[in-house]
Amino acid sequence: MDNSVLDALICPVCGLEFMEVLSGETALKCIDGHSFDIARQGYVNLLTGHGTKFTHDSAAMAAARDAFLAGGHYRELADALAATVRGALDAAGAVGVSTGGPAGRPEPRPLVLDAGTGTGWYLRQLLDRLDGAVDAIGLDISKFALRRAARRNAAAVNLVWDLWQPLPVEAGRVDVVLVVFAPRNAAEFARVLKPSGRLVVVTPRPGHLAEIARPAGLLGIQPDKEAALAAGVEPDFALESSSPVTIPLRLDPDDVSNVALMGPAGHHLNQRELDRMVAALPAWTDATAQFTVSVFRPR
Description:
single chain, two-stranded antiparallel ribbon, 8-stranded mixed β-sheet, alpha/beta, Rossmann fold
């Protein structure tokens, strides 16, 4: 966990800042004394009270996502995402470390907030392609996913958090909010972004993985997905750009099973029924992944 990122966080109980975590310490503490245990994998659960009413991804769902992404099937999406984020940072003058801070100290590095980081795979690809020139915060509601994310992105601050609640981040501190197939709390994203910051959102397009939708039990995608996205972030954001990403895939039965389990449908699938359907598949199934990468600027 990088202490330089902690400066951007606020305690969800009192709204005050957190103190630096010293070597050997096992808790994240705010200056008013509220304490949150650091899990042995490195993430911190900031949810208090009743936590959240939403269902988190299970251990099986997180494992399926990791297995599928590790196969490199969505590497082209990661490339497009990294190029988009780099462009947003360049436009805002946020890439690189300046020495123009007080008393010659380096200014804070650009900060990326991965809202719905999951197992941290997309964030890892982004950090690698940006040569580690940015700091990062990863938020997700699933501790099972964050166990993997914290190991994968040890320098990032990985937090269990409900994206529909006020984010534990100071206003105006973030350069890019990244949302890959996750809930979009537009008002909170606008609050934590700098005026020059950008919201980058990845959504599936109609027809995404249509070839395996039936055996994998995938949920349908609304025809007006992009229009609904733009309307959903009004009045906080205006659409700046929108780019399609299309990836031809060749999937084996295990890949299809992992696709089924790693998404929202994984909360409802019957494992025995899924195994039966996947067993009937041929050795290879051709499919097409279709995404849109959208960039929004704060109004």
